[in-house]
Amino acid sequence: MTSGMKITGTDLAGLIPAGSSSAPVPNSVAYALLERLADAGGPDTCAHGHEWTIATARVRVRDRRRSGRGIVIERDCRICKHEAYREARRHTRHQMKGGRLT
Prior knowledge:
Blueprint: H1 9-14, E1 22-24, H2 27-39, E2 57-64, E3 70-77, H3 78-97
Antiparallel strand pairs: 1-2, 2-3
């Protein structure tokens, strides 16, 4: 399952623009990182059961060297984010109409 792409912490730090603390990772690098996390025994799905793929995962690299944690890879599920957004808008819409959720 490995892609053969070797990614180091220096490479990841190079993705973060100057003056910023984080940056989204390009799809080619994200694919390799997701494979590496899966090979390391990480979960195959998010908490709600969506599989970690390029289409569903948003992968970011964050610089936490000031706090002693180094370069951190974060991933979150785009599907879960979208569902949470839709649910929040649904609640807002019902509140504006003065009614309960049905």
